[in-house]
Specification:
This protein is an all-alpha fold. It has 2 domains: 186 residues, no CATH class; 82 residues, no CATH class. The chain is built from 11 helices and 2 strands, in the order H-H-H-E-H-H-H-E-H-H-H-H-H. A two-stranded parallel sheet has the order 1-2. Helix 6 runs antiparallel to helix 11. The two termini are 32 Å apart. The mean pLDDT is 86. This is Sec-independent protein translocase protein TatC. GO terms for molecular function: proton motive force dependent protein transmembrane transporter activity. Forms a complex with TatA. Its main location: membrane.
Length: 269
Amino acid sequence: MSFWGHIGELRAHLIRAMIAIVVCAIVVGFNVNWIMDHIFFGPTRNDFFTFRVVNHYSRELLGHDSITLPAHFAVQQKKLFQQFNVMMAVSIFGGMVAAFPYLVWELWRFISPALHPKERKNSVWLINFVWILFACGILCGYFLILPFAINFGLLFKVSDSITQLFDLSDYTTLFLQIVLGMGVIFLFPVIVYFMTAIGILTPKFMRTYRRHAIVLILVVAAIITPADVLSMMMAAFPLLLLYEFSIIMSAYTFKKVQKRKLEEEKERA
C-alpha cells in the first residue's frame, strides 16, 4: 500500500473511533442527571464507598469515624452557560472512557496488517492489557485519590469566618485532572513495552535510574493532584508500584527480544 493509501486507511479508523466516542457521549448525555448526582458528585458524600471503607476500619481501630464530610456540598454556578459546559465536558469524558476499548481495537486493526502472524497472535493480550490498565488508572483516581483530595479541601480552614462555596468549573477541572490523569499515566507500562521491544529502553537502565524516576513520579503526582501532601502521596504510591511493574515488564520483553535475535542469527548461520 502507498503512503496515501496508509493515510486513507488511518483516516477510516479515526472516523470510526470518533463515531464511537460521539455515540457513547450521547448515551452519557442522556443519562447526565443520574451520572452527575451519583458518580460526578459521589466523592463529596459521606456514603461514598471509599469513606465507608475507611470509617469501617476506623471504628474498629479507633472507635470513631475518621472522615466526616459536611452534609451539603455547596457548588455554585458563576457563569450563564457553566452547567451546559460542564455537561458537555462530562459527556465527552464519559464517551472517551466508555469507548476506549473500541479505540484500542481500532488502533490494533490499523497496525495488525504490518505484523507477522506470530506477532499478531501475541499482540492480542496487549490490546486487553492497554484498556485494563487505563480502567485501573481511572478507578484508582476516582476511588483512591479524588475522595481524599476533596476531604482535604473541605477540612482545611484558616478561619471560621470563611464560607466554603465551590465553583462548578473548579470541581470539574479537579475531577478530570485526577481521574483522566491517572488513566493516562497508568499506560506507562505499555510505553515501556514498546520502547524495550524496539531497543530504546532496557531493564538495567530503569533500575539504574530508579531514584531519578521516584523524583519524577513525585513531580507528576504533584501536578495531577491538588496542593496537599496527602493527595500527592496517595497518587505517588500506585505510580511507584507501576514503575516497579514496568521494570518487570521491560525485563520480560528484553529477554524475548534477545531470544528472537539469537534465533534469527542461528537461521542466518
